[in-house]
Design brief:
By secondary structure, the chain is of the alpha+beta class. It has helices at residues 34-50, 82-86, 93-112, 178-194, 198-204, 207-214, 221-234, 246-256, and strands at residues 2-3, 7-14, 20-27, 59-64, 70-75, 79-81, 115-116, 125-128, 136-139, 146-147. 37% of the residues are buried.
Length: 258
């Protein structure tokens, strides 16, 4: 089904549960990273088991195979990745906004439970029942998740892993926080609306122009400028000046969108 830097995901069936479809994530062993991989596997287990939300991938089982290979079994999400949809261009405004709300709700739930995703990107968002009236976004792959203590200090970090195109600068140094996920979220939402990656936006056309193309013709220039400001604030290089929470980003989007 998918292959990443440290794991491969296979389609399977649960023989103890009426052959229901499942996803099986096998973590590849690397002698030079065995301790780190084992720690990340345990943290991903803990993250998934802590998060029971319809917008987050749900776990089934985890363990070690007979040949000492680490695995995690989760529900199988019938659908495609957001990345697969975006390869065809931007999404219609109503559809993009509906999926944005669902992603925001899932991330906010994770943050409330002290977990940062730290690798949010279109490949890590599934669209269940894609193209149907009950289509829904599901956030997957908590393999680089970070846990925060009650005082918001970081209990475990994984700064180097993740997709560079959507990675917040603070992943490479500085303090991780909910703003770390806000950065990635803003880039994903912008791409859903425009079909263009944020980092390529100015090279393609002025950001305001890209947004104007996909917004209703009646959208005023002032509203388009405000929407651009929402994205710029949420993707600020300095985490201290960036939009701090998913709820605040969603609130400002709700006001700015026509």
């Amino acid at each position: 089904m998918a292959k990443g830097g440290f794991a491969t995901v296979y389609f399977g069936r649960d023989l103890q549960c009426n052959r229901e479809p499942v996803a099986v994530k096998l973590i590849r062993f690397r002698p030079d990273l065995s301790e780190w991989i084992n720690r990340r596997w345990k943290l991903e287990q803990k993250a998934l088991e802590s998060l029971r939300h319809p917008g987050i991938l749900q776990p089934r089982e985890a363990g070690i195979t007979g040949d000492d290979q680490l695995f995690i079994v989760t529900e199988y999400v019938e659908g495609v990745t957001l990345q697969a949809v975006l390869t065809r261009g931007s999404m219609e405004l109503d559809r993009a906004w509906a999926r944005t709300r669902e992603i925001c709700e899932a991330l906010e739930y994770a943050h409330t439970n002290g977990i940062l995703h730290c690798d949010l990107k279109p490949d890590n968002i599934m669209l269940r029942n894609v193209g149907q009236s009950d289509e829904r976004a599901v956030v997957i792959d908590f393999g680089t998740a970070v846990f925060c203590a009650p005082d918001h200090s970081i209990m475990d970090s994984n700064r180097a892993a993740g997709a560079a195109d959507y990675m917040a600068p603070d992943r490479l140094g500085g303090t991780l926080s909910t703003a770390t996920d806000v950065y990635s979220l803003a880039l994903v939402v912008f791409e859903m609306l425009t079909g263009v990656r944020w980092r390529d936006a100015e090279a393609t056309a002025p950001t305001e122009s890209l947004l104007q193309r996909v917004l209703p013709p009646s959208t005023t220039e002032d509203r388009c400028t405000k929407l651009t400001t929402v994205f710029r604030d949420a993707s600020a290089f300095d985490a201290h000046t960036r939009t701090r929470t998913v709820a605040e980003f969603q609130r400002r989007l709700t006001i700015a969108l026509p």
